[in-house]
Specification:
Layout (H helix, E strand, L loop, with lengths): L14 H16 L7 H21 L13 E2 L8 E3 L5 E4 L6 E2 L20 H9 L3
């Protein structure tokens, strides 16, 4: 499903270099319809079905997910809003200002961690990229 990392502006010294990289990325994914193709849609559908099976297992009780109401959604879930203990258990979640009730399908949205305003350290990016070489 994922063919190449999307360029981020922080990876380039100038906006011009970033613009060229995004153009090349767009050209790459356009050839062969890498993003929008029947094969890719099948991959996303398979991933969605697997997630649907796992979500009830993540809840203590099925009725937490299968309720008839609308769950709360925290739109700014990021590493800066989570407190964890030494065992990596989430102990506190802050910044509830824009929280709203949403359809249950929103529980399947993967949060973007870390937050985009806190770019990933370059050593992590390099390690991630080396995994594909």
């Amino acid at each position: 499903m994922f063919h190449a990392p999307v360029p981020t502006q922080q990876e380039y010294d100038t906006f011009s270099e970033y613009h060229i990289a995004t153009d090349r990325w767009n050209d790459y994914v356009t050839v062969g319809a890498k993003i929008e193709s029947a094969k890719n849609r099948l991959g996303y559908t398979s991933a969605a079905l697997a997630i649907l099976e796992l979500v009830p297992l993540l809840a203590e009780r099925d009725d937490q997910i299968l309720s008839s109401g609308f769950p709360l959604f925290h739109p700014d879930l990021s590493t800066s809003n989570l407190f964890v203990d030494d065992d990596m258990n989430v102990t506190c979640l802050i910044d509830w200002a824009c929280t709203s009730s949403v359809p249950k399908s929103m529980l399947l949205v993967c949060p973007g961690l870390p937050h985009s305003r806190n770019p990933t350290p370059l050593e992590f990016v390099d390690s991630f990229a080396q995994g594909f070489v």
